[in-house]
Amino acid sequence: MTPTQKRTRTVLISGAGVAGPALAFWLARYGFRPTIVERAPALREGGYAVDFRGEAHLSVLERMGILADVRAAQTHMGAMAYVNDAGREVSRMPADVFSGDLEILRGDLGRILYDATKEQTEYVFGDSITALAEDADGVTASFERAEPRRFDLVVGADGVHSTVRSLAFGPEEAYVRPTGLYSAIFTTPNHLGLDHAGRAYLTPGRLVAVYSARDNTEAKAVFYFAAPGAPSHDRRDVAAQQRMVARAYAGNGWETERLLAAMPSAPDFWFDSISAVRMDSWSRGRVALLGDAAWCPTPLSGMGTGLAIVGAYVLAGELALAGGDHQAAFARYEDALAEYVRGCAKQADGVANWMVPGNRFMAWFVHQNYRLLPYVPWKGRIAASIRRTANAIDLADYGSVLRTRQNRACGSALAPSDNAAAR
Ligand SMILES: Cc1cc2nc3c(=O)[nH]c(=O)nc-3n(C[C@H](O)[C@H](O)[C@H](O)COP(=O)(O)OP(=O)(O)OC[C@H]3O[C@@H](n4cnc5c(N)ncnc54)[C@H](O)[C@@H]3O)c2cc1C
């Protein structure tokens, strides 16, 4: 271990979503001591389906040794059929556009990441950072519940509404860009008897969909609706959020009423405005941001989860390579990812108008496009283009670079287990 690395060993990560545990995984491999503080009282189960696209995403999962587990838990989702008021199919979105190359429920992914990190990571559930005071040697973090503690570095992996970002960079209004869409998602009985499939019903400004989950034993109800200029909602007032959904879908046809009736008793109701995060820089002093906290490309891009995994791999790798020089590591992390993140975020451009068309003509136009998709010459190119974007990064093999250095220096900073990371 080099003298400089001794100075950068403890890393506080805010958020046990996807990016946080993935970062902890790699940091522990490289000999750092990660602590994750998560606001939720326990690991968040359930949730919506997320997907990985292309080699870059999959290769990081493979290097982590969890690709087989993610594959074993994948949803095997088929196409999403758009239906009319009577439930008859009018068009369909192909599975590879809708579900990527490997789709998994977010809760299942969270469990896999937790199991892969829990031995080497200190998890603190039910708490949140309230203040960060940085000096030349480290950062003192204060918490809602725990006593203040010192860390060498702090990473905000706490999502779109990141507390770490607010504390280190200022109020979120400067970085969070609402799309004008809102979304609600919850688990509900699979009352339509869907078999690894989804149904969606589109009316101007409103999309409601259901897809089966966990081998058809349950379903996810999904609402995306336009409410441009709506006043910002209270993120902790679930009853008010449910009233907003019910108001937005009043009088909507198909299965909407039944789904709305199931909403209050859902075990895992999730609601938020759909917003992107745009920042010029993801680090300040000893604090860095990662995942949705830094660059949320919105769920409309289908890239957020893969980006979180890739970003964690790069951030940890650069910290290990920099041997404790966090400023150099953060600069290289941003250089390595900025262009890639921009490309992935661009995938969301214009998607809102397709997903939730604003008027009847546009809704009709969307259906016609999906209907014709299997027959047009550019069939398959949409998924291929998304995959190309997801692959547009050359990932360094940090494990072997570090191993080579270790061999040269004979007894350097690497933890012995890092060899596994370089597979
Ligand atoms: C409805 C929806 C559908 C999506 N569909 C897809 C998809 O199909 N494909 C895809 O790739 N991506 C999808 N995404 C995006 C994907 O979920 C995110 O991009 C990804 O989870 C980013 O991971 P993250 O760890 O950065 O943030 P998150 O997963 O949001 O995790 C942040 C964590 O921080 C915790 N937290 C928040 N505040 C604090 C605090 N103050 N202190 C401590 N902890 C805190 C939260 O509880 C959470 O556990 C979707 C997102 C949504 C909302």
From TrEMBL:
SUPFAM superfamilies: FAD/NAD(P)-binding domain. Residues 10-322 form the FAD-binding domain. GO terms for molecular function: FAD binding. It comes from the Bacteria. InterPro entries: FAD-bd (IPR002938), FAD/NAD-bd_sf (IPR036188), FAD_aromatic-hydroxylase (IPR051704). PANTHER family: MONOOXYGENASE, OXIDOREDUCTASE-RELATED. This is 2-polyprenyl-6-methoxyphenol hydroxylase. It comes from Actinopolymorpha singaporensis.
